[in-house]
Amino acid sequence: MLDLRFIRENAQAVRQALQNRNLQIDLDTLLSADARRRQVLGEVEALRAEKNKANDQISSLLKEKKDASQKIGSMKEIAARIDALEEELKGLDSKLDAALLTIPNIPHSSVPVGDPSHNAVVRTWGEAPRFDFKPATHVELAERLDIIDLPRATKITGSNFILFKGWGARLERALINFMLDLHTKKHGYTEIFPPFLVNRASMTGTGQLPKLEEDMYRLKDDDLFLIPTAEVPVTNIFRDDVLDEAQLPVYYTAYTACFRREAGSYGKDTKGLTRVHQFDKVEMVKFVKPEDSYDELEKLLGDAEDVLQLLGLPYRVVALSTQDISFAASKCYDLEAYAAGVGRWLEVSSCSNFENFQARRANIRFRRVKDGKKVTEYVHTLNGSGVALARTVIAIMENYQQKDGSIMIPQCLRPYVDGRESIPSS
RNA sequence: GGUGGGGUGGCUGAGCGGUUGAAAGCGGCAGUCUUGAAAACUGUUGUGGGGGUUUCCUCCACCGAGAGUUCGAAUCUCUCCCCCACCGCCA
């Protein structure tokens, strides 16, 4: 969330940011509630000071065995006035807290302003494969090779779930291991295997709640949520902690399954594997000093690109516009891999800098000495997919398909599939 | 699921109705001593918020969370959350 004082002192900048995100959020109500709160707070605190003083006097009167009944009587009245004002204060506080949670992060100045048509392709890597035959889609390939069984996944659970089978399952597992090895051994991340269920505080800490509750799978009896991304449990590792400057930066990577209801997206991308309720993802999460976060974002993006380059998948880097970046992000790049069968660019990664927006919500800070003084500051958090699996599997299947209907296995994955070169083996 | 014991500052841990923001110890920081270090000694050391004459002053809040009793609550009452130990069940 944003700092209330920042909003108070930079109301115009916040209004501009909301407009750039094309959001109608009433700032005036918030600002007047804030003004009223500070006024009431002043009154309450003056009365409390009076009360504290009187209590000291009562205390010493009683110690000297003198009569304090008059003083006690007059304090009853003040206590009642304090109660009334505190009641109002409490109302204002909860109103302000609720309002603050609905205000999104302010986009960085480098983010293109406007609707998604303003998204900017930063660079493109690789060449789309050429075929001397009509390339099949992943759905056709999966069925032909018997490596993914969507009808049975539907029978077991419902539509838009995946059941990998045989070498399909093996390919999925190979990708997970390949990515984790790459990030831990080459890019310096520490591997985490977090819980797949998180509590409400964690979901609020990273910004999924309260806004996106309807998109989440929730266990009602326990008020727990299935994670929509590893970002949630991994970022919340340091919730309410104060780190030491020397600990930063922290790089974590985690494989998890991700669960999304995708409410309201029916009819969009619903064929095959492009939009499913459960998918695998390897995520990267960083905790860094504020002054480093934009350099760290570029490095994070590079780490995700490395995955696609090693897999030999053509992709493009897209800088998202102000209306396309997520609620909590101040800047975001998407990586889109090209899938030759469906002939489309598929979003396989999203790399974002949240600056201190999540750190404020989750209360993640660090201590350092600045100008000879000890200070506690919020860290900056970042995360990026490195990368999302289902869509990457699509791209591999469609781009590496051969005329005979088999699929070549990218070189970097072969150590993870017993050296196998294709599915089925030739 | 059952029973018992707990949640106090960076940590350990005292306090169980009235100068207690909180003893003591450890740790951290600064100083004295020393060629240097250690030891010893001395001082200092929480967070958040409001206001101001804004390298400082002042006020308020905070002893798991919330509510209550009281002139006054870390301390008493209630509700909830969490942790630990043992037992049961279990991949």
The CATH class of the largest domain is identified as Alpha Beta
Total beta-strand segments: 16
What class would the helix/strand composition place it in? alpha+beta
Spell the H/E element sequence: HHHHEHHHEEHEEHEEEHEEEHEEEHEE
Largest sheet: 8 strands, mixed
Please compute the radius of gyration using only Cα atoms. 27 Å
Shape: elongated
Separate helix tally: 12
CATH third-level topology of the largest domain? BirA Bifunctional Protein, domain 2
Please, could you describe this protein's structure?
This protein is α+β, with helices and mostly antiparallel strands. It folds into two domains: 4-101, Helix Hairpins (Orthogonal Bundle), CATH 1.10.287; 116-423, Bira Bifunctional Protein, Domain 2 (BirA Bifunctional Protein, domain 2, 2-Layer Sandwich). It contains twelve helices and 16 strands. It has helices spanning 4-9, 11-20, 27-63, 69-101, 138-145, 150-156, 167-186, 200-205, 231-235, 293-311, 357-362, 389-399, and strands at 120-125, 190-192, 197-199, 218-219, 224-226, 242-244, 250-259, 278-288, 315-319, 331-339, 344-353, 365-370, 373-378, 380-388, 407-408, 422-423. It binds one RNA strand of 91 nucleotides through helix 3, helix 4 and strand 13.
